[in-house]
Design goal:
Blueprint lengths: L1 E5 L4 H7 L3 E5 L6 H9 L3 H20 L4 H10 L5 H16 L4 H32 L3 H8 L8
Helix pairs in contact: 3-4, 4-6, 5-6, 6-7
Length: 153
């Protein structure tokens, strides 16, 4: 089976015409550099969605080789709030820095912060449980899973 990814380097024109396309044929030919060039053309929000899907695919493949309880925990570790929530959260944080946040937006920011923190806490709970199952530290598990700690100012 072949997977042929058709991407060109003309990003701006391509973005106006259509999204990059994937054509599946009967022979596998993957040019890694071409894939990366195509991914580089994605808007930031599209890139984040792509990365999330790749991470989910990686977790799914790893989960195929682990017991069900570990697979369930891995799914929880990879669960996150939607890109729309994160995008809106970032928009509101910019308004805080610019000192242009309205009272309603402040309330929305508080709600989004709570939602994101709850999701992060659930992910951390799952990481801790998985680390305990594997008899390793959370730091070691995060290294194994390729999870980086978020940088917070």
């Amino acid at each position: 089976m072949t997977l042929l990814l058709l991407l060109t380097s003309g990003c701006p024109l391509e973005r106006q015409l259509s999204m990059p396309k994937v054509q599946v044929t009967s022979q596998i030919e993957l040019d890694f550099d071409a894939i990366l060039k195509g991914v580089a053309c994605l808007e930031t929000s599209e890139l984040e969605q792509f990365v999330e899907k790749v991470m989910a695919l990686r977790a799914q493949r790893r989960a195929g080789n682990v017991p069900k309880n570990e697979a369930d925990l891995l799914q929880e570790v990879n669960r996150s709030v939607s890109q729309e929530v994160r995008k809106r959260y970032e928009e509101l944080r910019v308004k805080v820095q610019e000192e242009t946040l309205t009272a309603n937006e402040h309330q929305e920011l508080v709600q989004l912060t709570d939602q994101i923190e709850l999701a992060d806490a659930e992910r951390m709970r799952a990481l801790i449980a998985l680390a305990q199952l594997r008899h390793i530290s959370v730091d070691t598990l995060m290294d194994q899973l390729g999870i980086r700690r978020p940088l917070r100012a």
